[in-house]
Specification:
four-stranded antiparallel β-sheet, mainly beta, globular
């Protein structure tokens, strides 16, 4: 069973950085592709970034390429999202998700989300 918990959200000024973490309390983390999604107020949830189970492949939304970096540490059952050069439009609830497939746009397990607010 995959149980995901996000942390690291907060309030930051435009141009600043944050690092989000997603930790799985289960024992099968390394078997799953992992991803970050975000949802801004009044908007649909959108894909941000994904990483394959072994970390050898990554995928990014065009809006975050060159600014965000996704990584994982399977020994610690944790995935990260390093967010740099943040913009107000990056504001939203960021959720992590897990899928047994790669590539995938359908994720089976979800965390509760963490709020990221970027002020201008």
């Amino acid at each position: 069973q995959v149980q995901l918990v996000e942390s690291g959200g907060g309030l930051v000024q435009a141009g600043g950085s944050l690092r989000l973490s997603c930790t799985d309390s289960g024992r099968t983390f390394s078997r799953y592709a992992m991803a970050w999604f975000r949802q801004a107020p009044g908007k649909e949830r959108e894909f941000v970034a994904a990483i394959r189970w072994n970390g050898n492949n990554t995928d990014y939304a065009d809006s975050v390429k060159g600014r965000f970096i996704i990584s994982r540490d399977n020994a610690k059952n944790t995935m990260f999202l390093h967010m740099n050069s943040l913009k107000p439009e990056d504001t939203g609830v960021y959720s992590c998700a897990a899928s047994p497939f790669w590539p995938s746009r359908t994720y089976h397990y979800w965390g509760q989300g963490t709020q990221v607010t970027v002020s201008s």
